[in-house]
């Protein structure tokens, strides 16, 4: 009847037909993942270079002295 290779080909074709609706979404998400991976690799490489300063945006918070806090 059917051999193992014929069944494998039939299963691949059936999976491709069923997954055809999801293919654009899958390729879009794969592209996003590739861009994120590339950006992270670039950031890691830039962080490893000793000559470049690392700047983190934030705001300064003034702390009260622990002895001068409100008392009950």
Helix and strand layout, with pairings?
Elements (H helix, E strand, L loop, with lengths): L3 H16 L3 H26 L24
Computed structural class: mainly alpha
The major β-sheet equals: none
Average pLDDT confidence is: 80
**Can you tell me the residue ranges where pLDDT is under 50 for at least 5 consecutive residues?**
none
Name the shape in a single word: elongated
What does this protein look like?
- This protein is 58% helix and 0% strand.
- The mean pLDDT is 80.
- It is mostly helical.
- The chain is built from two helices and no strands.
- The termini are far apart.
Question: What brief labels describe this structure?
Answer:
single chain, 72 residues, mainly alpha, 2 helices, 58% helix
In short:
This protein is mainly α and about 70 residues long. It is about 60% helix and about 0% strand.
